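Consider this:
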Amino acid sequence: MVGKNLKILRKHYGNSQEEMARLLELTRSSYSGYENNVAEPSIGTLIRLSDIYGISLDIILKKDLSTIPEHELESYLQDLNDYSGKHLRILTNTVNTDNEELIELIPEKARAGYSLGYSDPEYLKILPTFSLPFLSRDRKYRSFPIKGDSMPPVSEGSYVVAEYIQNWMLIKDKTPCIVVTKDEGIVFKVVYNNLRENQSFSLHSTNPEYKAYDVQADQILEIWKFVNYISPDLPEVRIDDSHLKDSLQEIQKDISELKSKIGKSRKS
C-alpha cells in the first residue's frame, strides 16, 4: 500500500521520480523501488515524505488513497492541514522575450501594496526586473526592500534576493526568510518551523533588542528563502579585544625581531 500511495501522491502533485529522489537525497532507482514495492523506505524517509506532503504517517501507511476518486483527492488532502504548497497559491512570474524568468524588484514605494498585488499580473508587470546569471534557472527569485535595524548585518535600504518556497513543510529552523503576511506585509526574519506542532512559524531577529513572535500559517501569504542581499553600505569591520591584543603582540614581536636584526648588523 505504501508504494501505491507514494505513486498517487507524487503524480497528484506533478513531481517526477527524479524530483522526489532529489528531495529525499536518494538515487532515482532507490525511490523507484519504494513505489514498486521492491524496497521499503526507512522510518527517516517516511518522516521526510510526511513533511514533504504535509500529511501524517498514518495516511501514507494505512490509508488506501486509490479508493479516493481523483476529482476528490485534492479536497481530501487539503483538509489534512496541507502546507506542502499545492493549495497555497499559483505564483505569478515575469519573463523576458526568451521566456526566461526575471527577478522582480519591489521598490520601496511599492512595498506597502505588495500584500495586495503580489499575485496580480498588472501589479507585477510594472515592477523593475533584473537577472543574476549565477542563480539557478529552475528556481523563482524576487528582491525585497529592507526597513529597520532588526536583521543586521542587513541594513535598512538594502534589498534581499530570495527564493520562492512552495513547500513550507521543508523550511528548516533558523532559516532567514522574507515572510509576507496579511497584516504586516513584508518582514525579514529568521524562521523557526512550528507547522507540525501548532500550524505557525516563530519569527526571530538577529538584533537581540527585538523580541521573537509567532505568526499563524493562515496569516502568511508567501515565504521566500534568503539567498543574498544588495546593500549601499559597506559593513563595518570590527576587531574584538582578544583579536586586537593578539595583533598588538604580533606587531611587538615583529618590532623586537627587527631591532635584533638591526643590532646584529651594526655590530658586524
In short: The CA atoms of residues 20 and 31 lie 7 Å apart. Residues 241-267 form the longest helix (27 residues). The beta strands are 103-105, 129-130, 141-145, 159-164, 175-181, 185-194, 200-204, 213-216, 220-230.
